[in-house]
Amino acid sequence: MQATQTDLQVYANQIRYYTLKELQELGFGHYGGSLSIVEVLAVLYGKHINIEPNDAENPDRDYFVLSKGHGGPALYATLFLKKFISEETLYSLNQNGTTLPSHPDRNLTPGVEMTTGSLGQGISAATGIAFGNKLDGRANYTYAIVGDGELNEGQCWEAFQFAAHHQLENLVVFIDDNKKQLDGLTIDIMNPFDFVEKMKAFGFAAERVDGSNVEEIDAAVERAKQRTGKPTAIILDTTKGQGVPYLEQKADNHHIRPSAEDNNAINKALEELEKALQGGQNQ
Amino acid sequence: MTFSSVLDQKEMRQTYADTIRELAKEDDRVIALEADLSSAMSTSRLESELPGQYVNVGIMEANMMGLAAGLSVVGRKPFIHSFGQFVTRRAFDQLFVSLGYAKLNAVIVGSDAGVTAEHNGGTHMTFEDIGLVREIPNAQVYEASDSNQLKYLLKKAYKEGGLHYIRTIRKQSINLYDENESFEKAKVLRTGKDVTIVASGIMVGESLKAAAKLAQIGIDATVIDMFSIKPLDIETLIEAAKKTGAVVTAENHNVNGGLGSAVAEVLSEHYPVPLYRVGVRERFGQVGKTEYLKTVYGLDAQTIVREVERVIERK
Fold it and tell me: Is A124 touching B (CB cutoff 8 A)?
């Protein structure tokens, strides 16, 4: 799969646009942590993950697990752009009887590989997927995104020990370091210290990149794919509400039920994204 | 069937290891997971015998559930073993969400059932595992009463897929069944007209002992090995309740949530008869030999006889 950086930036903006539209349609949701993973999703689904809706059960496909399940809306926007789900389905997020619940469900949504939402569990499953694929000699990769707050959960560190012990070079873990968890700043609630050093101490290759920069993320994934003998952790320096300055600055931006003022700002951001995307398409 | 105290030739753990080996050799998708208890479960040798089909994950039960889920996603057939409390109460949300709710395949084997945890004591003694797993939608729950039954249940779970919990002791059971016995329905081990004793696991032997004692005082008991707690064999249960008009349950488990609860629920809804439940009541575990602990918690033939006499008075 070939994709230029410009394509990936445009793709990220498309994901951001549809993530916002989907959440605005519903009127509440996890804006902050959905927006902070938009760029990494663009890099993964725009370039690296070899999955298509008409061949979604191919055992040699790459796997993706959104361990921080509350970022579901961003994944759904991506799966819409990948044509796994329709636009009508996209706007059914959390409506009664929907196939798009807050947290991803492998039995409800095409393209979702693992049910997540109870934090710490998705990364174990991703590790199991990577382990199984390695045992069976497949050349594919498993990518997982964990949240910085999610890493409060001890289970994540169990999974990391296992991944390093079994030298799962086919596992790439992204840590969405958006510096906030539900109740506030991670540094106030549970100091994460240095994720790069911690992951290295756990036996991973680890590096920190600008999580809003598709080029940097892509380069880190390329480096991960060259590596053997150990899993990779890519720590994404991100901002909750990323790419929408108004939401980035909003204090409580984990779960938002937008006020009239919020709606004005979000809708304005949507208009700007729409203009930029139309401009991008005309290029 | 008259009560015999002849023990199985094999320990239950050896049967577990042998059955895993057999299934793994037939199907390369089978994979066994242990959490640093392989030497306690006789599975240590499987690591070298079954490359790529056995993994000791270390002391991390929560992660073991997730690993099994991921392995199931890529088409493997995981068997998970640890002591009963570690694969249920310790990792319950992982069992519930990553395997149950995600509708993935796994056979969970919890060993050292109830008082057979012996000198590991209260921290390791699970009287609630059946109740916990019974709450997971579509999970099937079994308690093996002898070695041949355990082998059958492991193979059945492998064939059916979905989420199975099989509770067992690790050491030798009394021998109840022949090697080729089939277990499609609950096993009626003794047919009598006065009362029905419904038991599972080590309490099947105690129930047969109780039935022999009851016969001496002129009470003719039916004894059922209700090894499948979920789904419960409602037909066999109600038929016996109709014939005898009184039921006593017997389990090496808390009376709330386990076999006694399951039987009481069914009878209350479909065919109410006088019922008493023999089992653990509002107590934690403690250290001790199995035979001693059976007496302490009232998990013995003597208690069953007493409850039978009480229940018959209500007929």
Answer: yes
Q: Measure Cα distances from A185 to A34, A119, A148, A225, B99 in Å.
A: 17, 18, 10, 32, 32
How many structural domains does chain A have?
1
CA dist B315 and B313 (Å) reads: 6
Spatial distance between the Cα atoms of B189 and A108, rounded to a whole number of angstroms: 45
Query: Strands, E, within A123-204: which ranges?
Result: 142-147, 171-177, 180-181, 184-185
How far away is chain A from the Cα of B302, in angstroms, using its nearest Cα? 45
Chain A residues touching residue B72 (CB < 8 angstroms):
128
What is the least distance, in Å, from the CA of A238 to any CA of chain B?
27
**DSSP 3-state assignment of B19?**
helix
Contact B84, B168 (CB under 8 A): no
CA distance A244 to A277: 15
Q: Nearest CA of chain B to the CA of A13: how many Å?
A: 31
Please say whether the beta carbons of A229 and A169 come within 8 A. yes
Is the CB of residue A125 less than 8 Å from the CB of residue B104? no
CATH number, domain of A221, equals 3.40.50.970
Instruction: Specify the pLDDT at position B176.
Output: 96
Domain span holding position A133: 5-282
CA angle A51, A172, A235 (to 5 degrees): 125
What span, in angstroms and rounded, lies between the C-alpha atoms of A84 and A72? 14
Task: Give the nearest partner residue to B76 out of A113, A132, A161, using CB atoms.
Answer: A132
3-state DSSP assignment of residue A140: coil
Class of domain B187-313: alpha beta
CATH of domain B12-167: 3.40.50.970
Domain ranges of chain B: 12-167, 187-313
> B12-167 with B187-313: one CATH topology?
yes
Among the partner-chain residues B66, B70, B97, the one whose CB lies closest to the CB of A132 is B70
Cα–Cα distance measured from residue B122 to residue B223, given in angstroms and rounded to the nearest whole number: 30
Tell me which residue has tokens 């680890």: A206
CB contact under 8 A, A129 and B71: yes
Q: With contacts defined as CB-CB under 8 Å, which chain B residues touch A130?
A: 70
Structure-token pair, residue B199: 């038991």
Q: Give pLDDT tens digits along chain B (315 positions).
A: 445 689 999 999 999 999 999 999 999 999 999 999 999 999 999 999 999 999 999 999 999 999 999 999 999 999 999 999 999 999 999 999 999 999 999 999 999 999 999 999 999 999 999 999 999 999 999 999 999 999 999 999 999 999 999 999 999 999 999 999 999 999 999 999 999 999 999 999 999 999 999 999 999 999 999 999 999 999 999 999 999 999 999 999 999 999 999 999 999 999 999 999 999 999 999 999 999 999 999 999 999 999 999 999 999
Predicted-complex ipTM score: 0.95
